[in-house]
Amino acid sequence: MSLFKARDWWSTILGDKEEFDQGCLCLANVDNSGNGQDKIIVGSFMGYLRIFSPHPAKTGDGAQAEDLLLEVDLRDPVLQVEVGKFVSGTEMLHLAVLHSRKLCVYSVSGTLGNVEHGNQYQMKLMYEHNLQRTACNMTYGSFGGIKGRDLICIQSMDGMLMVFEQESYAFGRFLPGFLLPGPLAYSSRTDSFITVSSCRQVESYKYQVLAFATDADKRQETEQQILGSGKRLVVDWTLNIGEQALDICIVSFNQSASSVFVLGERNFFCLKDNGQIRFMKKLDWSPSCFLPYCSVSEGTINTLIANHNNMLHIYQDVTLKWATQLPHIPVAVRVGCLHDLKGVIVTLSDDGHLQCSYLGTDPSLFQAPNVESRELNYDELDVEMKELQKIIKDVNKSQGIWPMTEKEDDLNISVVVSPNFDSVSQATDVEVGTDLVPSVTVKVTLQNRVILQKAKLSVYVQPPLELTCDQFTFEFMSIPRVIQCKFRLPLKLICLPGQPSKTASHKITIDTNKSPVSLLSLFPGFASQSDDDQVNVMGFHFLGGARVTLLASKTSQRYRIQSEQFEDLWLITNELILHLQEYFEKQGVKDFACSFSGSMPLQEYFELIDHHFELRINGENLEELLSERAVQFRAIQRRLLARFKDKTPAPLQHLDTLLDGTYKQVIALADAVEENQGSLFQSFTRLKSATHLVILLIGLWQKLSADQVAILEAAFLPLQEDTQELGWEETVDAAISHLLKTCLSKSSKEQALNLNSQLNIPKDTSQLKKHITLLCDRLAKGGRLCLSTDAAAPQTMVMPGGCTTIPESDLEERSVEQDSSELFTSHRHLTAETPRPEVSPLQGVSE
């Protein structure tokens, strides 16, 4: 048994599917027995009232039949139960039960049984009050300082306080500014009622002020009649706590002072009688109920606070003294004396779990066996430690951070893409221009070896591709784990066969070490069948209008991809390389390789970066201007409202015209912001396509391994979405600067540079373009990307949050400029901004 779990002394489950709240539990000697033992009184919203007197034979026993003294069906929902001196002429304790439209006071008595079944208990109705208004809660006490009897005050749902002097109705008063009822408590020391209003402030009302205030029945009369018939109800003091209150409790463990405890949604307050804060405690969890129960030392009060994490915390003022775990979330907690056991904690959950528990620890009977002592050989331990460190180092080098396991996974994912399109397209927009948008069905199969809890399947595609459903949760399906499965979609999903073009603005040539293959074998269905089956020219038409032409040389081992837009080249180039690799694998050829020997098209790439950055700056300016116009619009509204409320009419001074003009400017700016966001989304999609192409060409150009290409992708494509707060330019600049500082550094001076911890939008893109050019230059000079611990510079697996300018010597800058002018030639500028759909392998994630 855990040390910090509440010790179960006695427990039971109340009824079947009954509901309870914080007012449904009470502990008192309701039958006025001579031993003074408390009884547990529980009422439910189903109308059942139960009285328990637990007598467990041993600790942890469940409820026995004789523990239930009385069970009565009252027919009406029980909102609250209290025990006090509610009957005139006697100081015996009676039970008050609050229903939604009725207040009943009962006498509970027991008679000694003559047989072994025990005593018999019965409940007799002393009197009842039928309420004209729906009740919410109640409180009781010696209102007005009377002795020997308790009065009852009921708060209605519409804010009326109804006071009952035992068998008779005294008066009713409406609370000022009332909206919703809050917790209600009575302070006997100050003779006042304390509640928390909808304004989130604690309010105190004197009983004398309530008694002499205007009667609630005269609320609808005129102001002059009200002033003539009684005094106005005014609040004694208020305190703004800034949140709704769950409960209020007033305690006084000595005659000198009393404290008002208020439990909020996130804070716990202790107030003096005059409303001043004695102390407050900010809670790190959501509380459910509380109870100040005793004062252990002078000037301090102990409090029980339960929360929704099944925990019960014991505080001495603001100091946490103990924490214990409960088997349920309590909505009410009480402390009493049961069966000669003092300090029993009684908790009640909303579903009827009633438990009596105590704090403390159980002694452990386990004794650790004696360990055979032996002398340690420190030399052997050092040798063994070095061998283990070497094994760990080798595993980290070969397998990365996480070691690979060969055991069978608890959950396997398999994906099957349908070879045919859906007969009826499921696309949201069926047409893009003159092209019909097709849809394809993807079947995801989950195979689990053990029972999993709440398995979630997420499917992600890069925009503008869309899914009919991307989240699946399986309730019938430990430690959270993530399993990924990648798969490819058919090329026909986003492009159609098109007419080849002889001329194009942008061209890329891919070299291979094998004889050219017929394009009909690589892309079946994208060209018409010819007589010789040797198709060396093929056209592709993307949904949206873009066209790409693929040419295969008849004499050399080269393939050319050309298009009017630079970013359109990536998808066909990538598909060509994948289809060539699959073709030669089927032929049994293992030494097939592709390469790129042309000039790196950085100029076209930089133009896309500049256009994307320009849209970001434009969006930032538009949002700032929109904020200014919104402030101006609200200021004009306030001026007009002040003019309209003024009793003396005054000219508007063209404020209405200014309001109308500002409103039109706000609408126009909002439309411009929305239009710019759409353009920014399309620009970011084109930028990602161009980035994929640049990474692919760098990998073919320098024959990079898969791990090195993955590092480039992590550096150039760190974001799935682009926002104003965190954009692509500053993130990529930080990642590339980190690579230049570590694995691609040339001197220890660069390695010693410190990177900033913040990412801010740059003033321009010159620094980013310089770093990208420098990265390509150092890769061309033999630099290699590596993140292992054996690199020359100290490595870290986490990319830094920012970067500073990397100083370069004049000699190196001149050499970079010369090499760049020879290596990266300038191409024609982009002349159109037509958006093109982008596609990449779909990724499914199950966790």
Automatic annotation (TrEMBL):
Ranges of residues in domain PTHB1 N-terminal: 1-363
Disordered as annotated region, ranges: 809-847
Q: Name one Pfam family in it.
A: PTHB1_pf
> Mind naming one GO cellular-component term on file for this protein?
membrane
Tell me which InterPro entries the record gives.
PHTB1_N_dom (IPR028073), PTHB1 (IPR026511), PTHB1_CtH_dom (IPR055364), PTHB1_hp_dom (IPR055363), PTHB1_pf_dom (IPR055362)
Provide the PTHB1 C-terminal helix bundle domain boundaries. 704-779
Q: Which UniProt keywords apply?
A: Coiled coil
Q: Which residues form a coiled coil?
A: 371-398
- Please indicate which superkingdom the organism of origin belongs to: Eukaryota
Does the keyword Coiled coil feature in the UniProt annotation? yes
Q: Which residues form the PTHB1 platform domain?
A: 490-597
Entry annotated with the keyword RNA-binding: no
**Single GO biological process annotation from the record:** cilium assembly
Q: Domain PTHB1 hairpin spans what residues?
A: 599-702
| PANTHER family, per the entry | PARATHYROID HORMONE-RESPONSIVE B1 GENE (PTHR20991), PROTEIN PTHB1 (PTHR20991:SF0)
Q: What is this protein called?
A: Bardet-Biedl syndrome 9
Organism of derivation = Colobus angolensis palliatus
